[in-house]
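Translate structure to sequence.
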């Protein structure tokens, strides 16, 4: 199998190139503080990796907020409009590490593909 050289890499700028994590935290805190609640680190851990709708459901239930999922999402989007223009770039060293990790991962995968057997032996190759 012949591989073509990589010519483009797409990045998800949110959290990779732009430091937006703290802005999400501020936005959530701004919304929940209207009800005298705190967006704690423990709650933040529960929400990591979830989609907006699921995160809103979890947060509303955990803090017993008197609002719907749609209202929470609308209010957080309004907060994003205020906060995100001030998003800072991630520190250069973090970008360098992430880029190196991407290159290394790509190289490992190419080497695995080159070393893999064809035919019935290829069936045991781990899929991602």
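Result:
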């Amino acid at each position: 199998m012949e591989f073509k050289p990589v010519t483009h890499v797409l990045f998800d700028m949110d959290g990779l190139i732009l430091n937006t994590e703290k802005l999400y935290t501020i936005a959530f805190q701004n919304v929940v503080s209207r009800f005298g609640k705190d967006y704690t680190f423990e709650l933040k851990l529960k929400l990591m990796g979830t989609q907006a709708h699921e995160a809103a459901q979890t947060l509303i239930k955990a803090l017993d907020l008197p609002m719907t999922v749609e209202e929470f999402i609308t209010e957080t989007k309004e907060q994003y409009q205020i906060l995100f223009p001030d998003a800072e770039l991630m520190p250069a060293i973090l970008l360098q590490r992430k880029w190196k990790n991407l290159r290394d991962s790509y190289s490992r995968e190419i080497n695995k593909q080159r070393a893999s057997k064809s035919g019935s032996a290829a069936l045991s190759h781990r899929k991602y």
